[in-house]
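Dear colleagues,

For the upcoming journal club I promised to circulate an example of a predicted protein-ligand complex. I picked one with MTE because it came up in last month's discussion. The inputs are reproduced below in full, followed by the predicted structure.
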Amino acid sequence: MLIKRPDDIAPSEITPEAIYRARRHFMQGAALGAAGLLLGNAEAEAAALAARPSPYRVSDDLTPLKDVTSYNNFYEFGVNKDDPAANAHTLRTRPWSVRIEGEVLKPRTFDIDSLMKLAPQEERIYRLRCVEGWSMVIPWIGYSLATLLKQVEPTGNAKFVEFVSLKDPQQMPGQRDDVLDWPYREGLRIDEAMHPLTLLTFGLYGQTLPNQNGAPVRIVVPWKYGFKSAKSIVAIRLVKEQPLTSWMQASPREYGFYSNVNPTVDHPRWSQAKERRIGEFFKRDTLMFNGYGEQVAKLYTGMDLRKYF
Ligand code: MTE
């Protein structure tokens, strides 16, 4: 295949991100994977993932791929921002299966490759706001979690959804320390989990997920703090009661179940009013529900968001 690129990019400047942008502007289709192979770039070695653009795209500038893949929180691989990129190569993402169980009529275990094919993959550009006060803008690839949940037919008792990440200290060296109660567990109310914005995520920047970003499958919930978006998940449980998440267990005063991005409700140790977009110098104002209020505010009508933080 002949790979074209925009004239204004010098070959020396070509990174997977530049290729990605070039593709978005100049090419439709799947040239990205081939371009990555031609360049032999390690980050581009992940398989290209075909995805159609979705209407869920913010117009903010994208965070450079190198920041998306080198500044991470993934405590299973260490607590420093550069630990996941350095250590996550020990994660084996095949074979991999995900159990969907609990209050459902049709519990099922999916092999990761069949899970990826269950619905057409979409590319969505979401803001991700970390509770620590930084944010990124990332082109994720996946499909709405609702598509999967509908397949297993939740019962009337399914009020919440729990996400369970892999527990394997052999592959995840950070689990040899008990900074959190492993496995990493997160949760959503059923209507939050069924909201079309909640993304079952397999890729970013046109590629399958790098290990440090939660390969081979993670959740992304763009209106909540980043820790709600569990990585490398092996089980999705539909349950009657609100699940106890790893962060609530570690520090209930600081991390509530809802954890909606909210500039008016401070973390006990710092303000949440502003954020630093990775790659930018000046801080910007944090938006209510991370800017997704039009879509999600109705989920919380009548709730005191100070109490249900
Ligand atoms: N999932 C697991 N299993 N373990 C983690 O430590 N960290 C969370 C979330 N998901 C975490 C996790 C936090 S605090 C954030 S901000 C996001 O992942 C970061 O996602 P990213 O590294 O892809 O930006």
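Two points we might discuss: Residues 11-300 form a domain with the Sulfite Oxidase; Chain A, domain 2 fold (CATH 3.90.420.10). Residues 72-76, 128, 130, 165, 184, 213-214, 226-227, 229-232 surround MTE (CB under 6 Å).

See you all on Thursday,
B. R.
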